Give the backbone structure.
Amino acid sequence: MNKKVFVIIVTYNGSKWIEKCINSLLRSTFPVNIVVVDNCSTDNSVELLKQFSEIHLIQSKENLGFGKANNIGIDYALNHQADYVFLLNQDTWIFDDTILNLVAVAQKNPSFGIVSPMHFSGDEKTLDEGFVTYYNRKIEGSLDATIINVPFVNAAAWLVSRDCLQKVGGFEPLFGHYGEDRNYCDRVLYHQFQIIIAENAKICHDRKITRNFKKDIIQSKYTMLSKVLDINDTLFLSYTKALKSVFGLPKYFKKSYSFSSIVKLFYNLVVYYVQLVFSVRMIKIARKKSMAYVK
């Protein structure tokens, strides 16, 4: 268990959670190095962060989004000999033994590329609504009752091994704020790593999942982007799946929005698919890089 763990937190106007998040890490029974990348916050996030002498603060001059900002922290951690990187959302907090238990599970098998804790909501009692969906997609044949194998889990709390990061790389910069974790999980599986949920470790994710039309359009586009970038499929099959999403996503959202909104969503996705077709050279380059990446 003599492993070096770097916690990477990307902040943006997160003053509501910063103190609770950082203080929970400082109480960890497993020693950690805390790196915060601030995405040019306009609230008092940076002022609050500077009160903690224990953290290494990196201030971006612009909002880089989730993936690119995390990549900065990941590079810093790897350059400082991190054995594991723990990616943690700003709106979360951990428990004293969370990281200890995650590292213990990660040590069981070098093929465990990502190890996630259980995600509870802000009340610390009920499971996070979004997390339940991923947890229920467990793959049969898990090692034991407390180690669950899944094809995907959101990146609110990922313990990622150094070996995984060096072979898979960081987040794909083509993504802005949504979809990068889906793409990363696809690449992790391609490189023969497993994605694990450790039931004996937990975090709390203080968020409310609500429908927002503008957000759903953006997420739908990034869903299509992640499909064309999925190197587990051929390029033709990837584009076929993205085309199916043009029709499938509006159908999925039809219970949430008016008919006119669904038509608008469909139009946006058709236009975006055409853009993806004309961007096939860029997509091929990104796919090739993902397939070959070994640092």
Summary: The longest helix spans residues 259-278. The chain has a mean pLDDT of 95. The beta strands are 5-11, 33-38, 55-59, 84-89, 92-94, 112-120, 147-150, 157-161, 194-205. The chain is about 45% helix and 20% strand.
